[in-house]
Amino acid sequence: MLIAFLAYCLQVTLKNRLLVHAPGLTPAAVMIKLATIQMVEVWIPMQDGRWLVLPRHTQPDKDVQAVLGHFRLTLPSQPPPRIKASQALAPPQSQPARQASLW
User: Which residues, including other chains, have CB under 8 Å from residue 91's CB and lie 6 or more apart?
Assistant: First the structure.
């Protein structure tokens, strides 16, 4: 119940901000645009058995950058790489890539 209330609060806040900054956009359209920014981790095996982990977020398209610009938001810089010990978990099993379709 609390999650639904917080989601409703987010939608109402976003709707009111859109009325001021971008009156032609709807909260649903903004959420669809922002959903295209994804976070990925690249696991690279090293010769000594450890793993080099590179967490990265995708660069937004021009239309997503425009939405971020309306709200004067910027994405944080890319996180630094980290090294996992050989005893640590192996890289997560990759799942087949899913493509979102608007049709």
Answer: 41, 43, 51
Sequence-distant (≥ 6) Cβ neighbours of residue 48 within 8 angstroms: 86
Measured CA to CA, the distance from residue 37 to residue 54 in angstroms comes to 16
Domain that holds residue 18: 2-84
In sign, the C-alpha dihedral spanning 57, 60, 64, 65 is positive
The number of domains in the chain is: 1
Q: For residue range 13-68, list pLDDT tens digits in order.
A: 989 988 888 788 888 888 898 889 888 888 999 888 889 999 988 889 998 898 88
Q: Whose structure tokens read 């938001």? A: 73
Domain for residue 98, yes or no? no
